[in-house]
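tool=predict chain=A
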Amino acid sequence: MDISFLESTALQMRRDILTMIAEAGSGHPGGSLSCIDILCALYFGDVLDYDAAAPQKEGRDRFILAKGHAAPALYATLARAGFFPVDELLTLRKLGSRLQGHPDPQLCPGVEVSTGSLGQGLSVGCGLACGLRLNEEDGCVFVLLGDGECEEGQVWEAAMFAAHQRLGNLIAIVDGNGLQIDGHVSEVCDPADIPEKFRAFGWQVSQVDGHDLGALVRVLGEAKAAGGDAPHLIYAHTIKGKGVSFMEDVAGWHGKAPDADQLAQALAELDACEVTV
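tool=predict ok
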C-alpha cells in the first residue's frame, strides 16, 4: 500500500471537487470533502473490486453513495479511476451533462443506483446484498451514509433487516462529520451513539479516523474479508470541509459554491498540503 500515492490522489480529488463546484456555481463541497478519503481508500487502496473498462462485470463489488448530494466526491473518484475523462468533471450540473446534481446510473458509468433522497441507500444496499447471495454471486456491497442521514427512520429499518438476514456481504460506512444542512447533528435531532446503536441491532462495528488513509484501507479491507453472518458498520470520524480552513466544521458550506477568490485560497491551501505528503 503506497500511502503517499493515496494522499496525493485524495488531494487531487479535493481540487477536483472544489473546481467543478465553482464552475457549476452550485453543489455540496462540505460533505464531499469529508468523505473523499473514504472513497480514495475504497477505489485506490485495493479494497473495492471494480473494472472501469467493464463497469457491469459480474462478481464486482457495489458502491452506493447514500448521501447522494456528495456526488462531486463520487464523480472525482470515478474520473480518476478511469470511468470517464477527467475534463468531463467541469460539466457538473450543466444541461446535458452526465454528471447530475445527484448520481444517475442511466447516465454515468460506475454509478450503481440513483441516490439523494436520504435514508433510502442502506435499504437499496440490503436488496443488492440479498440478491447477490440468492444468485450465489461474489461481491460485497458498500454503502456510504451521512451521520445526519442516520436521523431517518428507514436507516434503522434497514439495519434491523440486514442483521436479521445475516448479510455478511454488506458493509455500511457512516461519514461522521457532525454537521448537516441545518447545523450540528447533535442539535438538530441527535441520533446519539450511532456505532452502539448498530451494534445493538446485531452488526459488527468498527471505528476509524476517516482521514487516515492507511487506517481506512486496513479497516475496510478487514470488514470485507470478515464476511460471516453479520453486516459490518464502519463509523468514520471526519471533518466537514476537510482540507480547506474556512470550510472546516462550518454548516454553511453544506451546499454552497466558492467564488473565484475562495477557490483560489482553497486550492492554494491544498497545494501547500501537497508539499508535506
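The radius of gyration is 17 Å. The mean pLDDT is 97.
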